[in-house]
Every structure is written in C-alpha cells, then in structure tokens.
Specification:
There is one protein chain. This protein has helices spanning 2-23, 51-55, 71-89, 102-111, 126-130, 167-184; strands at residues 37-42, 45-50, 60-64, 93-98, 119-121, 134-135, 138-142, 145-149, 155-160. Helix 3 packs parallel to helix 6 (167-184). The protein is globular and about 45 Å long. The strands form 2 sheets. It has a 7-stranded mixed β-sheet. It has a two-stranded antiparallel sheet with strand order 6-7. The chain is of the alpha+beta class. A hairpin with a 2-residue loop joins strand 6 (134-135) and strand 7. It has 6 helices and 9 strands, in the order H-E-E-H-E-H-E-H-E-H-E-E-E-E-H. The chain has one domain (2-184): Glutaredoxin, CATH 3.40.30.10.
C-alpha cells in the first residue's frame, strides 16, 4: 500500500511538472505572431479574416478561448464587447479564436459578442497550435490566452489565465502603453 502511495505521488508530481512546462509555452513579447486567414463571423456574417489585413489598421488583440457558449467564454465575450469602443479609441481591433465551427460562431458572434467584434473558427486547431495556445490536457482546444500584436507583427503582450476576469483590462492597458510609447517617438 505504501508503495502505491509513493508511485501515485511520483506520477502526480510528473503530471504537474509536465503541465507547468506546457502551460508556459505561449508566445512571448518580441516573438513574431504567426499570420493566418480564417473563416470568421461578425454579427452573424461570415467572411475571411486576415490577421495581416487587420494589422494594417493598428494593433490587434487576439484572444483564444476554450468553447463558445460556456460560462467563462460567455463572460469574456461580453467583457470584450463592452470594451470594443475603448480599443477602437486606441486604434486597436479585437478577434477571438476557438476550435468551434463557423456555424456555432455565427450565433456566438451575435448573442455573446453582441456583433461588436469577430470570432474565428479554428476547428482543426492550426491557429491554436501556431500560437502555443492549446489547453495542456486537451490540445485540440484553446486555453484562455490573450495576445496584443503590434502592426509590425510582433507580440507585445501575452496573458494566460483560465479566469476571464483580467483579459480585457490587461490587454487594453497593453495597447495604451504601446500607444504611449509609439506616439512619443
């Protein structure tokens, strides 16, 4: 019995260590943001979203979320929707990405995103993987990760937390900080 407890403790420690390594693998400030084009919905209308096109207009807040219509993702979508005008005032745009299909996101973009910003479908998790934004224990789904990307395509801010609470405040502050630094130059 004692040997089983030790083995269990050792396996648990290994799992925590593996999770820690995976959880810290997100892109960091200064990294190049991978470009992508994906089917997206804004207000229920489907179109091809291009990160490169969005960056021509200013900084982009790219946030990944696990699944549409779940409690935390709904809270986060509402908060981003409420803050869209503040991002626009700073010259920034917002895009959400999840593994959901485009049909689901058409509904989510209207009801939860309140037709304020687009959400892109990444059903095969290609974008999620390219941004190292997968859930550690389920790599086909996105973790809750927010990035701010400068117009030059470099990541200027990254925040990872399964809690939706600080993603909007943190990314909005990162955009403001970036603007303050670049307007002074």
């Amino acid at each position: 019995m004692r040997m089983k407890k030790r083995l269990f403790a050792a396996l648990a420690a290994c799992a925590v260590a593996a999770y820690s390594l995976t959880a810290g693998a997100t892109l960091k400030p200064g990294d190049a943001a991978p470009g992508f084009v994906a089917k997206a919905s804004l207000g229920g209308d489907v179109y091809d979203y291009s990160l490169a096109d969005a960056l021509r207009k200013g900084p982009v807040v790219l946030y990944f979320y696990p699944a549409a219509f779940t409690k935390g993702c709904t809270i986060e979508a509402h908060e981003f929707a409420e803050a869209v005008d503040q991002y626009k005032a700073e010259g920034a745009t917002v895009i959400g990405v999840s593994h959901d299909d485009i049909d689901t996101l058409q509904r989510f973009s209207v009801s939860e995103c309140r037709s304020k910003f687009p959400v892109a479908a990444d059903a095969d998790a290609t974008i999620i993987r390219s941004y190292d934004a997968a859930l550690p224990m389920k790599s086909s789904m996105a973790n809750r990760v927010s990035y701010v990307i400068a117009p030059d395509g470099k990541v200027i801010y990254e925040y990872t937390s399964l809690s939706p609470d600080k993603h909007v405040a943190n990314t909005l502050q990162a955009v403001r900080d970036w603007n303050a630094k670049h307007k002074a130059q």
